[in-house]
Design a protein that fits this description.
heterodimer; A: about 280 residues; alpha/beta; 4-stranded antiparallel beta sheet; 11 helices; about 40% helix; B: about 260 residues; mainly alpha; two-stranded antiparallel sheet; 8 helices; 2 strands; about 85% helix
Chain lengths: ~280, ~260
Amino acid sequence: MPRRAGDSGRVRAAIRDELETLAEAGADTQAQPMEEGRDPHRKIIALDNVTLSFDETILQDVSFAAKGGETIVVVGESGTGKSTILRLILRLLVPDKGRVSIDGQDITNLTFDEALKVRQKMGMVFQGAALFDSMTVHDNVAYPLREHTDLSEDEIEARVREKLDFVDLEPDKVSDQMPSELSGGMRKRVGVARGLANNPQIMLYDEPTSGLDPLTTATITYLILKLQRELGVTSVVVSHDIRSAFRMASKIALLANKKISFFGTPEEMTGSDDPYLREFLGGF
Amino acid sequence: MIFSLQEYFALAGKAIGFIFVKPFYASDAIQQMNAIGVGSLGIVLLTGFFTGMVLALQMSVQLQAFGQEALIGRVIAGSMIRELGPVLAGLMVAGRVGSGIAAQLGSMRVTEQIDALNTLGTDPIKKLVTPRVLAALIMLPILTIINDFVGILGGNIIATFLMGLPASLYWRTVLEQMISGGFTFRFIPNDLIQGLVKPFVFGGLISITGCYYGLKTTGGTEGVGLATTRTVVTASVLILVIDYFLTQIMLTMFAP
C-alpha cells in the first residue's frame, strides 16, 4: 500500500481515510494478544519523580509511565524540557533524583556499556532525522543490523527493503541515494526505518512533524499510528503539533513549569476545565 | 581549564585503548588513512620539495663563505630528517586534516548524528575517534618520510644545478649524516628514530585535538567554525611546543 507524499489531492484524501480507519481500528488491535514486551498492562517506560538540573532546574518531580503498545505524546511550550525527557529515557542524561525504568529495569545507574545495550531495545527518530550523511539510505537503515546482529548481507538487504517498504518508500529508488538528496519528509521516514531496523520494543520521536507540510505531517502521523497498531510498539513522541498529537496519542503528557501538569487521554484533555490547559489548547 | 585537560586526556586514553578492543572498525580506519595519508600527499610533497630547495639555497651562501659547500647534503639531511620534515608535515596535516576532523565531527554533533550513534548502541569514540587517531598515528610518520625524501631531493637539485656539486657527492654526504648519529639495534639510524618519533606524537596530537573540539561543538554552524579554528591553532602551537621538548629529550638520549 505504498503512498508517496507530494503527489495529489487523491493521495491526501487516501491518507486521511487511512488515519481515520487506523484510529477506529485502534482499540481492537490493542486488544489482541501481544508478546511480553508489548503487553498492554506492563509498564515499558516509567519515569518516577525525576528531577534534572543543569544551571537551573529543567524537570522537577516528573512521573509518568507508558504501558505496552501505548503512544505517549509529550506536549508543552518551547524550552520546557520535552526533548530532555527523551534523552533521559535513552540514558543520554542521568537524573539528579528519581529513576527511569525500561521494561522494569532501572537504567539510572547503568555503566556506559550497559546503557548501550539498553538502547538497542529502542529506536529514535530525531527532529532533523540525524541520518549519517556519509552513508547511503541503505547503509543508514542497515547500520544497526551490521552493528548488533550476525545477519548475512542478503538478510540485511531483505530487512532494509522491508523497513523502507513499511515507511512507504520505494527501496529501488531511494536505497542508493544520499540523505542530502532526500526531501525533509523522506529523511524523516528513512529515520523511522532506521529506528525500526532492529525491531525495537520502544520508539522515541523528537518533533517528528516539525517543519513539514500538512500532507507530509499526515504521512508521518499515519506511520506512527501504523507502528502502534500493527507492531504494538510502545512510543513516546515529543511534539508541538497538537492536531497530530490528538490523532496518535494513547495518552498526552503536558509539561509546564518543569512538571507534568496533565497526563491523560486526549478525550480527558479536551474535557478538562483547567485554565492553563484551555489556554494551551487554544481553539483546538 | 583543568577540567578540559582532564577531558582531553580521557578522550585520548579511551581512543587509544579502543584500538585493541572489539569491534574493530577496520574499514573506517582504512578510509581515514586514505583521507589523511593519500589526501595530504600533494601538500606534503610541495612543502617538502620547496623547503629543501630554499634551505639549500640559503645554506649554499653560508657554506660557500667558509668553503664548505661539499657539506650541503649533511646540512639538508640533518635539518629535514630531524626537524623540518616532522614539523612541516605536522603543521600541514594540522591545517588540512585537523580542521577537517573538527568540522566533520562538529557537524555530526550539531545535526545530532553523534546522539544517533549513541542511540543505535554505538560508542562514538570507538566508531569515530579511534579510526582517526589510528590512521593519523600510522600515516603521519609515512608522510614525514616522504617529506624528508622530497626535501633532500629538492636540496639535491639546488646543489647540482646551482652549486655545481656532483649528485653522488651530495647523496654520500646525506648518508654520512644519517649514520653519524649512531644506530639503535645496530641498524636503525638514530637520526631516523628522532625524525619518526615526532610525527607519531604529532599524529596523535592532531587527531585527538580535532576530535576533542569536534565532539564538544555547540551552537550550530558558528560552533563548527569555532571548533575548526581552535583545532588548527591549538594543534599548531602544541606541535611547536612539544617539538622543543621532544628535541631536548632525544638530544639527551642520543648524545654522541
